[in-house]
């Protein structure tokens, strides 16, 4: 029972760091670069994607024994599109301005390779509980990545965070950061940082392994 609990927890945690969709797998780059010009836009897109990931994973897992193998990709896209439509109408009802800011990228969640990939690689091969945890972990990891990118772009590009001014009037904003090209700069900053941290972790694990071998020899 304990082993199952650890395994299930790992399905959620892996999406946050070890297999982060943006910083490690480099998936979902269109929304990550296009709508992350502000923190609120990044969180909204991340939340929408998380909802679709969880619900699509649950649905695919429940229907995995009934979907013909030859029609699985078409079936997955239909399932994903259903939940994307729900998200689209929900965001429109909550805030027209937010819906306009996210624009066509809400509909493009349907073809997000992250969602289709998790449906094909994981949800179609696992039980509903694990599929939901996997989708939730990947979604939260995707949201966190978008939020980090959005914070850098909004702070440097507009001098604000969630619309609140952070600096004095004399602060010179970096206009390029709120433009599409700014997404590449912010992404590069975070990729450098994440890769540096992972390299340090790998070196520390290697040193611990060497110490353990020396201690046993």
Shape: flat
Kindly report the average pLDDT value. 90
**Helical stretch tally:** 8
Helix content: 55-70%
Query: End-to-end span in angstroms?
Result: 35 Å
**Strand neighbour order, sheet with most strands:** 1-2
Which sheet architecture does the biggest sheet show? 2 strands, antiparallel
Regions with little confidence, pLDDT below 50 for 5+ residues: 1-6
Beta-strand fraction estimate: under 5%
Element-by-element helix/strand order: HHHHHHHEEH
Tally of domains: 1
Radius of gyration: 20 Å
Classification by helices and strands: mainly alpha
The number of E-state strands comes to 2
Keywords:
two-stranded antiparallel sheet; mainly alpha; 8 helices; 217 residues
Give a quick precis of the structure:
Helix content is 69%, strand content 2%. The protein is mainly α and 217 residues long.
SSE diagram, text form:
Elements lengths: L1 H12 L15 H6 L4 H25 L8 H23 L1 H7 L10 H9 L6 H31 L1 E2 L2 E2 L14 H37 L1
Antiparallel strand pairs: 1-2
Description:
Helices cover 69% and strands 2% of the residues. It has 217 residues and is mainly alpha-helical. The chain has one domain (2-216). It has a two-stranded antiparallel sheet. A hairpin with a 2-residue loop joins β1 (160-161) and β2. The chain is flat, with a radius of gyration of 20 Å. Mean pLDDT is 90; it is low at 1-6.
